[in-house]
Each structure stands twice: as C-alpha cells, then as structure tokens.
Amino acid sequence: MHLHKYEKIWLIFGGGALVLFLLILGFGAFYLGTHPQSHGVTIDPENVEANEAFERENLGLTQVDDDRYIVNIVASTFSYDLGDDGEGNAVSHIEIPKGSTVLFQAVTTDVIHGLNIAGTNVNMMVEPGYISSLEVELNQTGEFTLVCNEYCGVGHHMMFATVEVVDDESGNETAAE
Ligand code: CUA
C-alpha cells in the first residue's frame, strides 16, 4: 500500500497528538493527583443535622482563622438556609473580607439544586445524599449573587442570596508586605 507523503505526515501528527495528550492526562491524574472537586462525601438527606457542619447553629458564615472562613448551606425548595442572625431573622446576605479563603459546604434536603456565585469560580451541583464542597480564595470585591442554577421547581427563581466581598480594613495588604 502506498501512502502519500502528506498522508504520512498527518498520520504521524495525529498519532503523536493522541499520545501527547494521553501522557498529559496521565501525568495530571496519577502524578499530580488531579481529581474532581467532589470527593463523594455522603450524608443522609433526611437528617442532615446529624452532621455537625449542618446543625442549625453552624449554618452560614463561620470564621475559623485570620483569613479563613467556612460557609455551611442547607438548600431546599426554595431557599438557601444560611442560619439566622441571632434575632430569629433568616440570613440572606453574607460579608467576607477580600483575600479570604472560604470553604463552601452545601447539602440539599430534597431535590437537586445548584449553587453558583455568579462572577466567581463557585459553581456546584447540590445533590441529595452528598456534601458538595469547594474552597476558593475571594480576591475581587463587590456584591455577588448566589443563585440556584439547577431547575428545581416552581420557586426555582426565588432561590438566591448575596455574598459581598468587602475590603478588609484591618489590612491584608499590610500583612502581605
Ligand atoms: Cu433550587 Cu433551582
């Protein structure tokens, strides 16, 4: 069988690209340990409070260190439970200093919901039976909308809260110098 010169070049190019990409994929997966964000942590969706993080008083924003926070969220039709403000009012707005590292942990007690903080990297599915978690550094100030981006029923459009990233007056900048 005669192979035209250009056909040979293209075959080598195509085969080479395949081998190269497989090597990169293997390097990332086995050497760097790259894996999906969710580690498949399970939870009983009918009793999320059995997990300490999702006990009523641990919902919402918690500071765990100088510039580290945890936000625990229980999603259900059709709201995000971010705890209350201590006076019985549901929290729907949280403020986080710029430059903080924030671990978002979310569960749902009913159907699949989404958890997207528009304009940031935070974008997760929240599935019954699993804990969705994602750690991010929030470096851009402004008010961001936390929205459900998985259609979950007639009140889907009412599922939102706001996350405000504020300039840290006490000065992360001075600390960085
Ligand atoms: Cu929850 Cu859409």
Automatic annotation (TrEMBL):
InterPro entries: CcO_II-like_C, Copper_CuA, Cupredoxin, NosZ/Cyto_c_oxidase_sub2
SUPFAM superfamilies on file: Cupredoxins
Catalytic activity: 4 Fe(II)-[cytochrome c] + O2 + 8 H(+)(in) = 4 Fe(III)-[cytochrome c] + 2 H2O + 4 H(+)(out)
Domain Cytochrome oxidase subunit II copper A binding, chain residue ranges per copy: 38-177
Protein name per the record: Cytochrome aa3 subunit 2
Keywords annotated in UniProt: Copper, Membrane, Metal-binding, Transmembrane, Transmembrane helix
Transmembrane segments: 9-32
Record function comment: Subunits I and II form the functional core of the enzyme complex. Electrons originating in cytochrome c are transferred via heme a and Cu(A) to the binuclear center formed by heme a3 and Cu(B).
Origin superkingdom: Bacteria
Primary localisation category: other
UniProt xrefs under PROSITE patterns: COX2 (PS00078), COX2_CUA (PS50857)
Subcellular locations according to the entry: Cell envelope
